[in-house]
Amino acid sequence: MYGTHWIDAEKLDGWCVSIEKVVGGFIWLGFSKAEPWKMLCISADKTTIFDCNSGTITKTDCAYDEDALFALCEDLKDDMITIAGQYGGSLPQTSPQGDMVTNECRNVFEYGKDLVRERVFFTSADGAKHEIYEGYTPYIYGFSHDGNYFVFAHDGGVTVLKRKVR
């Protein structure tokens, strides 16, 4: 853990933490295209909508297809939300504004097992590169469709960053 958050966002000048939440049994998440500040989060226990602007989380119902990687939710205006998580799918690794996220993986032998450790780097549109995470492979990370939100999910929980209004 970095400081008070699961990722090190302190040096990301144009971003702030919007939501940080423990999600037990995390499975999938996906950003709405019609309402890009809303993110669907599917866990083994429940399905919720994260309002990444206000920081609120509300329970919802949805249907999802793990093979086709999409979800339908009456509480979101999208017809289909593309989902991604620890079992597949992906999120955009670059934002329309020019930010990007990259990683470096390395195999380690720890606790009598071969494990993978990953370093995740966030590069701002101005070229400033910062390591935001170092640890075991996270579930999923990437940008919303409009690039104003960034999500990072791992076994500790979900962190959502939002772009600061300038």
Sum up the structure in keywords:
single chain, mainly beta, 15 strands, five-stranded antiparallel β-sheet, 166 residues, four-stranded antiparallel β-sheet
Biggest beta sheet summary: 5 strands, antiparallel
What average pLDDT do the residues reach?
A: 92
Shape: globular
How many domains make up the coordinates? Answer: 1
Radius of gyration (CA) equals: 16 Å
Number of strands: 15
What order do the SSEs take from the amino end to the carboxyl end, as H and E? EEEEEEEEEEEEEEE
Q: How does the helix and strand content classify structurally?
A: mainly beta
Strand order of the largest sheet: 5-4-3-2-9
Distance between the termini: 29 Å
- What percent of residues are in strands? over 45%
Note the total helix count: 0
Which regions have little confidence, pLDDT < 50, spanning 5+ residues? none
Query: What is the chains' assembly state?
Result: single chain
- Estimate percent helicity: under 10%
Q: What can you see in these coordinates?
A:
- The chain has strands spanning 15-21, 26-31, 38-43, 47-51, 56-60, 62-65, 70-73, 81-82, 84-85, 100-110, 113-123, 129-136, 140-143, 149-154, 157-163.
- It is an all-beta fold and 166 residues long.
- The chain has one domain.
- The strands form 4 sheets. A 5-stranded antiparallel sheet has the order 5-4-3-2-9, with no helix packed on it. It has a 4-stranded antiparallel sheet with strand order 1-15-14-13, with no helix packed on it. The protein has a 3-stranded antiparallel sheet with strand order 6-7-8, with no helix packed on it.
- It is globular and about 45 Å long.
